[in-house]
Prior knowledge:
By secondary structure, the protein is an alpha+beta fold.
Amino acid sequence: xxxxxxxxxxxxxxxxxxxxxxxxxxxxxxxxxxxxxxxxxxxxxxxxxxxxxxxxxxxxxxxxxxxxxxxxxxxxxxxxxxxxxxxxxxxxxxxxxxxxxxxxxxxxxxxxxxxxxxxxxxxxxxxxxxxxxxxxxxxxxxxxxxxxxxxxxxxxxxxxxxxxxxxxxxxxxxxxxxxxxxxxxxxxxxxxxxxxxxxxxxxxxxxxxxxxxxxxxxxxxxxxxxxxxxxxxxxxxxxxxxxxxxxx
Length: 248
């Protein structure tokens, strides 16, 4: 996937070294865009393995409006485990369990999962049940209905960034907002991603939002168009630089 390799080269050529919340250090640049014509095929990276099962189940988890990792761990998706485990370790219920023991409890004990597996009002909550005070907004259902009713609308937007609830989230949304666009019977999608882990996260995000676009196109009777991936802070972590060099 040439676009992705060009993206990595751009960060290496134009990025600056910056500190970050993980204390790992990054090479970072600001602002970039990639485009993928979905009618040409599915944009799945081939220069390293992508765990497509995790892509699919995480996206279904978002669509369900779920915010608890139990569904994910029951389907062998591990990408969200660290955040609730860290919260659990800081609680009075922690008795020295390893992360493997914690995940096993989440998987097999519904009550334990209810108490310790939730991530707060992350993506699924915002997509499907945005708290507007007097009412709850199902953004995904609304945008699909609007695509069918008024495909020329410029308001076909779903946002995961809820300033009133960001502080309650285990991790604020990195892929922040997406917008659909209909033209000549084709559905396109543009994602704005505020923070992009170029080596680990971005290949996963490309596959996830390409799949979402295909799904929404299918239920609205449209053909797939273009997936446009727009970034804010694009970064390569310092401990990934050797792996990036190998990939390039």
